[in-house]
């Protein structure tokens, strides 16, 4: 929990006793300077884990932002009963530290954090585990065939296994692409297998006419010409 200047808190002190005080200094490492009620006594750089908020009307007022008419600046109530001597330090040093804390808070309030990187897949290409793809190899400036064996959905990186057995881990999506020529190759193989079957059966013209019954004469003539040409190869 973060405590602001002027907050009333309960402090578990080193001797185990609980005391009530006011936050008079805030440090970046979650440590606070406390002035205890009654005046004249305080501790510096107390861990935030040793503090707890005292619910009171005063704390509620301290945590409210007060508009200055310009709608931008926020102020907090200053601490009451400040006694720099209770900490054994110079009052000017404390005022300087309080000023620095306020400046840091103002910077944090005006700082706009960078937008989270959009990891949406571009172009719809999102390989799944087991899919065969190609990976860019900069050593040979070529694309190597591989298979996706692992995937990090958040980082959009992939583990792949190449055709030679080598593996790659954490490959970015931008270095992968769909495997080229696979469908075309399968189509050519299927066509060749069909022609080979007709060759083995012998009667090409009769086989074509029987299989493609119902097609126009012009279509049949064209297919016959193609098959005869392939037979002569």
Q: Tell me, briefly, the overall form.
A: rod-shaped
Total number of helical segments?
5
Report the portion of residues in β strands. Answer: 25-35%
Based on DSSP secondary structure assignment, what is the total number of beta strands?
Answer: 10
Determine the fraction of residues in helical runs and give it as a percent range.
Answer: 25-40%
Q: Which structural category do the helix and sheet elements fall into?
A: alpha+beta
Rg (C-alpha, Å):
39 Å
Q: What is the string of helix and strand elements?
A: EEEEEHHEEEEEHHH
Average pLDDT score: 72
Intertermini distance: 83 Å
Number of domains: 3
Unreliable stretches covering 5 or more consecutive residues: 62-82, 117-122
Largest sheet: 5 strands, antiparallel
Order of strands in the sheet with the most strands? 4-3-2-1-5
Key descriptive features of the protein:
five-stranded antiparallel sheet; 233 residues; SH3 type barrels; 3 domains
Provide a concise account of the structure shown.
With 233 residues, the chain is an alpha+beta fold. It contains five helices and ten strands; from the N terminus they run E-E-E-E-E-H-H-E-E-E-E-E-H-H-H.
């Amino acid at each position: 929990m973060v405590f602001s200047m002027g907050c009333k808190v309960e402090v578990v002190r080193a001797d185990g006793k609980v005391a009530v005080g006011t936050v008079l200094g805030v440090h970046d490492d979650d440590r606070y300077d406390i002035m205890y009620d009654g005046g004249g006594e305080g501790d510096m750089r107390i861990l935030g884990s040793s503090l707890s908020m005292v619910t009171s009307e005063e704390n509620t007022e301290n945590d409210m932002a007060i508009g200055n008419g310009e709608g931008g600046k926020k102020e907090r109530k200053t601490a009451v009963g400040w006694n720099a001597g209770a900490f054994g330090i110079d009052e000017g040093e404390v005022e300087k530290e309080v000023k620095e804390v306020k400046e840091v808070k103002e910077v944090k309030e005006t700082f706009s954090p960078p937008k989270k990187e959009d990891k949406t897949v571009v172009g719809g290409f999102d390989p799944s585990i087991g899919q065969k793809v190609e990976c860019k190899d900069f050593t040979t400036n070529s694309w190597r065939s591989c298979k996706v064996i692992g995937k990090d959905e958040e980082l959009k990186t992939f583990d792949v296994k190449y055709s030679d057995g080598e593996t790659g881990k954490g490959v970015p999506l931008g270095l992968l692409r769909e495997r080229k020529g696979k469908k075309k190759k399968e189509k050519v193989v299927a066509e060749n297998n069909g022609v080979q079957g007709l060759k083995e059966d012998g009667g090409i013209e009769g086989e074509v006419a029987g299989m493609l019954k119902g097609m126009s004469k012009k279509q049949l003539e064209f297919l016959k010409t193609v098959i005869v040409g392939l037979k002569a190869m």
